[in-house]
Write a structure and sequence with these properties.
This protein has 507 residues and is mainly beta. Helix content is 14%, strand content 42%. The strands form eight sheets. Strands 11, 13, 14, 17, 18 and 19 form a six-stranded mixed β-sheet that branches. Strands 21, 23, 24, 27, 28 and 29 form a six-stranded mixed β-sheet that branches. A hairpin with a 5-residue loop joins β32 and β33. α4 packs across α5. The radius of gyration is 58 Å and the shape is rod-shaped.
């Protein structure tokens, strides 16, 4: 009898638990992942046959709100008190059809992340819990430097930074480059960091060193974090790769160049490849002073992506340009030092200038020699030789002496083997391999006489004196005539020695 009673009690207890036990209430999904701005529906399934009212609770940060819905055929009866809230029907919708009860939460916001929902029958205070996990897709990404085009020198490092908006889960940043219409990944020299907030911000930095091959290449980043959503792309930055001039050649490439006076010469400067195209400036340096040359210059540039500039200078040096240095200087990128060519120094070659202050030194003149001295003129940039033509006044035979320039300020030379107590006429000129000067004015010089005393008798002296005077008068007249003829010869035929001799021989 007792065992039957116990069995009845057990069956009644089981039926009671089946009808009223909260553990028969099931909520799904357990963890509800939802994208911000979307709706989510929670479903509560009750296995108790006599339950037709469900109480929903929403708990966030310790604050609990209750919603109640009842019904068995789909539409739910909502207590009038809940309907007083204007946002109630906008935010929630219910479905009641025993044993399934649903609530739809509309337009989920990130503020509802980690909200816990549960369902249970009235009279109970707990039930299965579902946690809403709000996914926040990346909405924007910024890139710095934020430039459509950036000027950058070849092989100069630059850093780009992409920074996302707040997102959950954390975002993945991918870098790309576009060249000639082909897009490819960049997977080197990238560092990333993410804040440890619930809704995180990801920062990615790309260090890039563009070469000339990257001119016109576009750089951008792309960000994604939620499946089945489109990635967000940054603005693009295009490289304008600047290639500073690295070298410049000049031709002719000589340290010193010999050139005849008033003879044109062309110098050409050519740059290495550069972008933008280079500007060539010509300079001359005279006595330590540098000045521009801005005449007789022609330039040309190849119009490739990286150009070569050629500049030609036509210069006509005079003797005043002797020792002047010529060079070119090239620049094309701001804040970079210009590149200078080697320098070429002019050694201007010309006929020499005439000797100066040609004279004879009486104190150093002897009975058979005449001591001469003069100051050399400009040698024309070449070794010069001095030429002395001299003639005994009483003779028509020309004599010559050639003296090399010693480089001294005053040159001295002694004519030897001359007649005693004789008058000589002399001229001087200079020459080098370019040409010769005109002859100087005639210089008259005489050797000294013998100082021995004549002991003839007084009568003999007087007679001899008278006769001598008569002879001297005749000789002087003849010599003056011959001297004048000599002057005419030298002045008329200064540059032709053969004609000079012929002229004098015929006198």
């Amino acid at each position: 009898m007792g065992s039957r009673a116990n069995a009845v009690v057990f069956v009644l207890w089981t039926i009671s638990e089946f009808l009223y036990c909260n553990c028969l209430t099931i909520l799904k999904p357990i963890d509800a992942e939802v994208i911000e701005g979307n709706n989510i529906t929670l479903e509560c399934k009750v296995l108790s046959a006599n339950v037709n009212t469900i109480r929903w609770s929403e708990e966030f940060k310790g604050v609990t709100a209750f919603l109640e819905a009842s019904g068995t055929k789909g539409p739910c009866d909502i207590p009038r008190a809940f309907q007083y809230f204007a946002s109630f029907t906008w935010k929630y919708s219910f479905y009641c059809a025993h044993p399934v009860y649903r609530v739809t939460i509309k337009n989920i916001k990130r503020a509802e992340h980690n909200t816990e929902w549960s369902c249970f029958r009235p009279g109970d205070f707990s039930g299965p819990v579902s946690t809403i996990k709000v996914q926040v897709p990346v909405s924007s990404v910024s890139v710095s430097p934020p430039q459509d085009m950036i000027d950058i020198k070849e092989n100069t490092a630059i850093e780009f930074t992409c920074k996302t908006s707040e997102a959950r889960p954390k975002a993945t940043v991918t870098w790309y480059k576009v060249k000639s219409g082909v897009t490819s990944h960049i997977d080197q020299n990238i560092t990333s960091s993410t804040t440890n907030d619930e809704f995180s911000i990801t920062t990615s930095t790309l260090r890039f060193v563009p070469s000339r091959q990257h001119n016109g290449v576009r750089i951008f980043c792309q960000v994604s974090n939620v499946a089945n959503t489109s990635p967000v792309q940054s603005s693009e930055t295009t490289f304008n790769v600047l290639l500073p001039v690295s070298s410049v050649s000049i031709s002719p490439s000589k340290d010193t160049i010999d050139i005849k006076e008033n003879t044109a010469i062309e110098f050409t400067c050519q740059t290495s490849e550069a972008r933008p195209h280079a500007t060539v400036t010509w300079y001359k340096v005279k006595s330590g002073v540098t000045s521009h040359i801005d005449q007789n210059i022609t330039s040309s540039t190849t119009y490739d992506e990286f150009s070569i500039t050629t500049s030609t200078l036509r210069f006509v040096p005079s003797r005043q340009h002797n020792g002047v240095r010529i060079f070119c200087q090239v620049s094309n990128v701001a804040n970079t030092s210009p590149v200078q060519s080697s320098e070429t120094t002019f050694n201007v070659l010309s006929a020499p200038d005439s000797p100066l202050e040609f004279r004879y030194v009486k104190d150093l003149t002897t009975t058979t020699s005449i001591h001469l001295e003069w100051k050399p003129g400009y040698n024309g940039g070449l070794p010069q030789t001095f030429h002395i033509i001299y003639v005994l006044r009483s003779s028509s035979t020309l004599h010559y002496a050639n003296i090399d320039d010693t480089g001294e300020d005053v040159i001295e030379y002694t004519l030897t083997g001359l007649s005693e107590e004789a008058q000589y006429e002399l001229v001087i000129y200079a020459s080098n391999k370019i040409g010769s000067t005109s002859k100087s004015s005639i210089l008259s010089a005489h050797t000294k006489g013998n100082e021995t005393t004549n002991n003839s008798s007084l009568i003999g002296g007087v007679v001899g004196g008278v006769i001598g005077v008569m002879i001297i008068v005749v000789v002087v007249v003849l010599l003056i005539r011959r001297h004048n003829i000599f002057k005419v010869c030298l002045n008329r035929y200064k540059h032709d020695t053969e004609i000079e001799e012929r002229c004098l021989d015929n006198q």
